[in-house]
Amino acid sequence: MYNNLLSPRYDMDTMLAIKGKDFVLLSANIGTGKGLLMLDQDKSKIERISDYSMIAAAGEGGDPHRFVNSIAKHSELHRVQHNGLDMPVNSIAHFAGKQICANVMENLNYKVSALIAGWGPLMGPQLYQIDEFGGLRSVPYSGQGVGMALFNSIFQKYNSPDIDEPTAYKVLKQCVAAAHERLAVNMRHFEVFVVKENGITKLNTIDADSLKTAPN
């Protein structure tokens, strides 16, 4: 059974993802902070790399933002050099892993982890986890940051290779509900995106109000 308990933990950062037969859901709490201090309540951690790939990064200081920008710029350069063709999702993931590894080699205090979700005509839905040392693996579900020991049991209980999108969304809602109930860190809102054959779509944000008004 896949185990995701080794993910690093960062102040007020949580990213969640789950892969189904023909889609990937990627979610992250909105806002950045340090300790008990909220620095930016509207900062998104999820960036679209192409029409069929996206990345979320967690870490310390400005490192995640700079890291995501470097991946986006590399992907755009590939698009220009290859007559508008997007970089394959697995290639983006391998490049991102190498970038984190190189940054750690230069600075041992560098701490960034990432989730990359995408869809391709040959490989279908893809989800990659990159740890704070640049270690890369393809996973059925994952998360980085605060609370993963809490979320792991939820993923293990409900994950299935054939899980459908509505059920996967409900699994993410259960994770967010657990965060609201069990974690001292205040993570109010989680934005959610889905990527599949027709591209990337933003779904309803998961927050305290949606947890009250919609069934789990």
From TrEMBL:
Cellular compartments per GO CC: cytoplasm; nucleus; proteasome core complex
Gene3D superfamilies in the cross-refs: Glutamine Phosphoribosylpyrophosphate, subunit 1, domain 1 (3.60.20.10)
Keywords: Cytoplasm, Proteasome
Lineage top rank: taxon: Eukaryota
Subcellular location: Nucleus
GO biological process: proteolysis involved in protein catabolic process
Subunit structure, interactors included: The 26S proteasome consists of a 20S proteasome core and two 19S regulatory subunits. The 20S proteasome core is composed of 28 subunits that are arranged in four stacked rings, resulting in a barrel-shaped structure. The two end rings are each formed by seven alpha subunits, and the two central rings are each formed by seven beta subunits. The catalytic chamber with the active sites is on the inside of the barrel.
Protein's UniProt name: Blast:Probable proteasome subunit beta type-2
Organism: Drosophila guanche
